Structures are given as structure tokens and as C-alpha cells.
Please model this.
Amino acid sequence: MNYWDQYLLPNSIDEALGMLHEGKGSAKVIAGGTDLLLDILQSRHPAVDALIDITRIPEMQVVERAYDRIYVGGGTTHNDIVANPLLQQNAHCLVEASSLIGGNQVRNVATIGGNVAHALPAGDGSIALLALDAEAEIASRTSRRWIALEDLFLGPRKPAFEPSKEILVRFRFPVLKAGESTMFQRVMRPQGVAIAILNMATWTRKSVEGIIEDIRIAIGPAGPKPLRARKTEQSLRGKAVNEGTLSEAVEALLEETRLRTSPHRATRAYRKHLLSVLLGRQFGNIGPQRGR
Ligand SMILES: Cc1cc2nc3c(=O)[nH]c(=O)nc-3n(C[C@H](O)[C@H](O)[C@H](O)COP(=O)(O)OP(=O)(O)OC[C@H]3O[C@@H](n4cnc5c(N)ncnc54)[C@H](O)[C@@H]3O)c2cc1C
Model:
């Protein structure tokens, strides 16, 4: 049995979109193939007529700063993200997330666009980009549009764009300014399962006195989509970090997350415990988890 009949290598977004159009729904974009090929081989995705490999498209590899924003091509591999000085400076949480994905062989080919387009609730790259307040540029044959990452997911494996007609070209997010910092952490099973038991990314802006002026928190898996913990963020804004504010924040987190038991990874109770551990670590281990 053939899993695909043609393997196509377009040199531009327009060419790739034309190939998708000609495929009439039975062609599929492929980047590193580390999600898609497994899905096809393990029958979670039907065989396709054509695979359209977007990794030779120069526009999709560009990482650059323009004015007060950083742009990251959807075809950028995780190892290229890790090695990029601009991202090390402005997007520590993304660099950290990419550095933890798979092993070196996976990171050499797997892309940030593929991680997001796969739309898992705990994709490490998706969680980091959500905390960075990123937007994704989606191209169709007739237009290009920017979508906030928070609106890019409909549910597990369901991105909010049309995979048979559209391509995720690049991401953009604001540069890091004075007083701002980002962080990514996750807890994994020791071996065998690629997706985190729980991951968390934060972007924080603190005053010189240590007050949290603004914060963004992203968590997965905490529901059907990568979650922006907006109630928790609100409970922390304008406050100094101490055990009291962190306890309140953990309460808010427990309210707005939908944790579940998954047979291969962890129980709901363990994930609940990890919420307070990860949140405490974001603030230097202050908080209710201390001493455990
Ligand atoms: C051993 C192993 C370990 C892994 N570990 C982790 C881990 O620790 N954390 C984690 O989050 N993930 C992990 N993964 C999953 C995977 O490696 C990542 O999600 C990776 O970033 C996917 O990128 P890719 O380029 O390989 O995507 P592909 O497999 O090429 O594509 C994935 C999906 O996205 C679509 N797609 C890809 N690029 C685009 C685009 N630009 N526009 C539109 N659609 C697109 C494809 O059609 C497909 O549906 C692991 C996988 C393996 C095999």
C-alpha cells in the first residue's frame, strides 16, 4: 500500500497553495513530518495523494526583527530556534520549549509551524507562543491574514484554518522590553511519550519594586485547546509575589483549567498538584508548593 503517491517540493508559498488547490482535499502540507508521518503510518490520518513539502520555501525559514516585533517563519526547525540569538534575547520561553522537544534528530527537522498546526492542547511550541502573545499569518490563494494564537485552535488536532486550502506562513510577537521576562517549564514522563504531563509558559512585566504590572500565562493540557489562564493572570496583576497572592492564583488556576486523567501520562490529581508547583517555580519557588 502507498501512503502517498507524489512528494512535491514547491519553492514559494503561491506555488504550494496552487498544489494544495490542485490536490482538491487529498494533498497535505508536510514540514518535518514528525507528527504527520506517524499519523499516516499509524492510521490516525488516511493515506494522501500528494505530500507538499514546504521546507524549501525561503520565506518560511526567516527569523527577523522588524520595528518592535519578532517574526519567525513557520518552517523554522526547533534546533534553529534554539540557536538563534534574536530569539534567545526576546523569546526565552520559546527557545526553552524548542530545546525540550523530542531529541536532536526530531529537533533537526521538526518545525514550529508543524507544532502549532498539529493543534495539540499541550504542544510545547504552541504554549510558548501563546505566552508571547503571538499571532500567526495564514495564507490562502486569495489573501493573507493574521490570527491571534489564542484563536488559532478549535480543538485537539483542529487548527482554526483550512489545512486543505491554507498555509501557516510565520508568527510574530512583540520584542522583549525592560522589566519583561519569559519562562517555560514542563513535567514529562521519563520516557516514551512525546507530550507533556503539564507545561506552562509565562511572560511577565514587573516594576523595579517587584510588582507584577502585567502577566500572561499559558498552560497545557488544561482543556481541549492550549489555554491562556486569563483569570489567574488577573488575580496576579498589580500585586507583589508572596505566598498569599500565589495561593489565590493557584485557586484561580484550578477554577479555569480542565485537567483530566490520561491513561498513558498522569492522573488528574497529579496534574492538579503540578499546577501549584509550576506556578510557584515561575516566581522562584515562592508559594504553596514550597517544601514538597
Ligand atoms: C519522538 C518524538 C518526540 C516528540 N516530542 C515532542 C515534545 O517533546 N513536545 C512537542 O510539543 N511535540 C513533540 N513531538 C511532536 C512533533 O515533533 C512536533 O509537534 C513538531 O514540532 C511537529 O513539526 P513537524 O514539522 O514535524 O510537523 P509535520 O509532522 O510535518 O506536520 C504536522 C501537521 O501540521 C501541518 N503543517 C505543518 N506545517 C504547516 C504549515 N506551515 N502550514 C500549515 N500546516 C502545516 C501538517 O499538514 C500536519 O497536519 C515529538 C514527536 C516525535 C516523533
